[in-house]
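Good morning,

Attaching, inline, the backbone tokens for the sequence recovery test we're adding to the shared suite. The designed sequence is right after.
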């Protein structure tokens, strides 16, 4: 009889493990989706503050470099308190990229600098580290929030 009870308890505990793992996986997925939604909301919030279009800003940026140049990447961001479109532009026959920051408010050139391939790689590495740190902080915050909700009074 005692063996039967112990076996039942062990069986119930083992059966609960996949359910707990599934709940944790669902919570992680839910938190990741919420995080992505927050990022989309932040980007939409920035976009709602612009006074000129990305296409107009791109036209201004391309006018600053040699003909035949192409936009490698672009983003809308707040930098040093200013809302800007940032463009990395490749110029034919030139190593590296031209980085142009165009005001998203009035279309003026805020900054223009040449980035060597080495500097560009360094910036990409720093940006990746910043994103990783932000992701870790977000996960820690989500875990702390989850721990607060699972505490029993």
């Amino acid at each position: 009889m005692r063996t039967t009870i112990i076996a039942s308890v062990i069986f119930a505990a083992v059966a609960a493990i996949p359910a707990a793992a599934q709940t944790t996986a669902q919570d992680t997925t839910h938190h990741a989706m919420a995080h992505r939604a927050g990022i989309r909301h932040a980007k939409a919030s920035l976009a709602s503050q612009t006074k000129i279009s990305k296409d107009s800003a791109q036209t201004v940026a391309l006018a600053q470099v040699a003909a035949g140049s192409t936009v490698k990447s672009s983003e809308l961001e707040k930098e040093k308190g200013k809302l800007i479109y940032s463009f990395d532009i490749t110029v034919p026959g030139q190593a590296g990229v031209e980085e142009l920051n165009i005001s998203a408010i009035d279309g003026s050139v805020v900054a223009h600098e040449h980035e060597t391939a080495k500097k560009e790689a360094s910036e990409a590495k720093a940006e990746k580290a910043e994103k990783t740190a932000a992701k870790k902080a977000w996960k820690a915050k989500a875990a702390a929030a989850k721990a607060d909700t699972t505490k029993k009074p």
